[in-house]
Design a protein that fits this description.
mainly alpha; 7 helices
């Protein structure tokens, strides 16, 4: 968590700020808070419903004390370990550069999806010991992360605000809704 936060969020953010980039240029400032808030609520509700009905409803089976400890811990670990690093590295720094480089919103969205899948290249379940395993791992990485990466790109490009994707489609759903039971199990909470 600390490594990801420092090397993918804090240091890149400080570097670009020291080079004169504003939070607005880095997609980190809302130009319409009311619209952003409405979008966040709608997407968060939809995504939470999808996660709970199609991916895992295990969080609903946790006891109250497990929820009281597990939800904040899951939220904080994932926020600093994956939420902020993804938001800053891909959607605040890379995405505006993809748009400038390509001049195409569609190409930028695709590159955002590829970047999101690529940053997960060394997931714990990937195996690169043979060409076949490596190829299969990359295929599954693309299946799992390319689509969500494109959605995050669209949200960031349409709103000009990377915070929208973080709160609507990353920090709570899926990381709190799906990961809390794992955090409860790993840390033996409750």
């Amino acid at each position: 968590m600390l490594y990801n936060f420092i090397f993918y969020a804090l240091l890149p953010y400080l570097f670009f700020r020291s080079r004169g980039y504003s939070n607005e240029q880095l997609n980190l400032k809302s130009s319409n808070r009311a619209n952003d808030a409405l979008l966040i609520v709608v997407i968060l509700l939809l995504e939470s419903a999808i996660q709970l009905s199609l991916v895992s409803s295990a969080i609903l089976g946790l006891e109250a004390n497990q929820l009281l400890m597990g939800i904040p811990l899951s939220f904080l670990l994932n926020l600093f370990g994956t939420g902020f690093p993804i938001m800053i590295f891909i959607y605040a720094i890379l995405l505006p550069r993809f748009l400038k480089l390509t001049g195409s919103v569609a190409a930028t969205i695709v590159l955002g999806g590829v970047a999101y899948a690529t940053i997960h290249f060394f997931e714990a379940w990937t195996t690169y010991d043979t060409v076949a395993n490596g190829t299969l791992s990359v295929i599954f990485l693309m299946f799992q992360y390319f689509g969500p990466g494109m959605i995050k790109s669209v949200l960031t490009l349409r709103t000009g605000n990377a915070w929208v994707h973080l709160w609507a489609y990353h920090a709570i759903a899926p990381h709190v809704t799906v990961d809390t039971p794992n955090i409860v199990n790993v840390f033996k909470l409750g």
